Amino acid sequence: MITTAKTPTIYDIKYAITNESHYFDRKSMKFFGQTLKDFTVKKSPTGNIFLYAPIYDSFTHKNTGCYSMREFKDNQLHHCQIYGHIALSGIIDYINTH
Question: In which domain, by residue range, is 23 found?
């Protein structure tokens, strides 16, 4: 369990997850063209922890301009209240208000 006041790294989060998440499965990440290095972890002003990464086109390997995003809480990944593929500006706004 992560208990420090410091923002965890993506590696800390991956190894702390206790639920049956497929978010970091090799097949899932390959489908979206992602690696762990693509992820950004941010702490909101209220202390919530969010992670997001760009989604790449499976065929062209180009950034689609959309991002996947989850909230990390209680050693589990949770969907955020905004759904689908989100632009970076929407992610930043969401994190700043949650």
Answer: 10-97
Distance CA 59, CA 8 (A): 32
Distance CA 62, CA 56 (A): 5
pTM as predicted: 0.85
The answer as to whether 54 is a domain residue is: yes
Query: What stretches in the chain show pLDDT beneath 70?
Result: 1-4, 83-85
Is 3 domain-assigned? no
Full 3-state SS string of 3-69 = CCCCCCCHHHHHHHCCCCCCCCCHHHHHHCCCCHHHCEEEECCCCCEEEEEEEECCCCCCEEEEEEE
Tell whether 68 is covered by a domain: yes
- How is residue 85 written in tokens? 């593929």
